[in-house]
Design a protein that fits this description.
This protein is 43% helix and 13% strand. By secondary structure, the chain is α/β, with parallel strands linked by helices. It has a single domain, classed as Decaprenyl diphosphate synthase-like (Undecaprenyl pyrophosphate synthetase, 3-Layer(aba) Sandwich). It binds farnesyl diphosphate.
């Protein structure tokens, strides 16, 4: 079965958005949302579809959520598309994911450009096949000066590796005499992470009911609010996002301080 056929079939099964809900007021919305898009496989299994159909439907959900984040003027959206651990999946599933990711960038790039979306890849692209790597680098390059939604896509990404990479870069600068150990601060460390000068994550949403961080943005989520949505990612839509934004708006973020009276 071709990817396009699977995608067409998967589209038919996806939960539709009613589009009659409203998000909370702008000042109560998070500036940076991170998504762990989990549950594609279980979504497919429940419908007796191949896992690849789950990933195809997951791509549809992603398209809708990018549009919603753009509409709600969210500043940064980070997604976990492929972890360093995902290489251990069966070869045909890895291949399907690669194909979907490349196809997505090739087909969406014009709309993303039009919306002013800036794509940044978080992770090590060296392990990717040439065609995929080139498509990803081109998408990143083409959108780098855009001023709209910042879309961070974690690919072959691991949070611990990101921290080690930053520590190595800072150590090297110290050894070369470009900085002193005392210059290492939250700010200088952050600048060596993939997200560089982005604001830390305000809200992390993991779908499918699993309650773990799974090595995602360990540095950037230090004070993030976390929502574990029970919905499988392919069923996550604009309405679900609005519901979660209201949950976020109702939280009391104190960052370790006591509440202001
Ligand atoms: C987790 O579901 C999902 C992934 C490992 C991949 C996420 C990828 C997409 C949503 C598709 C396309 C991405 C882009 C950037 C176009 P799972 O397979 O672990 O589900 P399960 O836990 O139910 O088995």
């Amino acid at each position: 079965m071709k990817i396009s056929d699977i995608a067409r079939a998967a589209k038919l099964f996806r939960k539709k958005t009613k589009a009659d809900l409203l998000p909370p007021p702008a000042e109560k919305r998070p500036r940076h949302i991170a998504f762990i898009m989990d549950g594609n496989g279980r979504w497919a299994k429940k419908r007796s579809l191949p896992r690849s159909a789950g990933h195809a439907a997951g791509t549809e959900a992603l398209r809708e959520i990018i549009r919603a984040c753009d509409e709600f003027k969210i500043e940064i959206m980070s997604i976990y598309a492929f972890s360093t651990e995902n290489w251990n999946r069966p070869a045909d599933e890895v291949q399907t994911l690669m194909k979907l990711i490349t196809k997505y960038f090739l087909s969406e790039i014009d709309e993303l450009m039009e919306k002013g979306v800036r794509i940044r890849i978080l992770g090590d692209l060296d392990a990717f096949p040439d065609e995929q790597r080139q498509a990803l680098i081109t998408a990143q390059e083409r959108t780098k000066d855009n001023k709209g939604l910042k879309l961070n896509i974690a690919l072959n990404y691991g949070g611990r590796m990101e921290i080690i990479r930053a520590a190595r870069a800072l150590s090297e600068k110290c050894v070369k005499g470009e900085m002193k150990p005392d210059d290492i601060s939250v700010e200088t460390f952050s600048l060596e992470t993939y997200t560089k000068d982005d604001k830390d994550v305000d809200l992390l949403i993991r779908t499918s009911g699993e309650k773990r961080l799974s090595n995602f943005l360990l540095w950037q989520t230090w004070y993030a609010e976390i929502i574990f949505s029970p919905v499988y990612w392919p069923d996550y839509n604009r309405d679900e996002l609005i519901k979660d934004l209201h949950e976020y708006a109702s939280r009391d973020r104190r960052f370790g301080k006591v509440k202001d009276k």
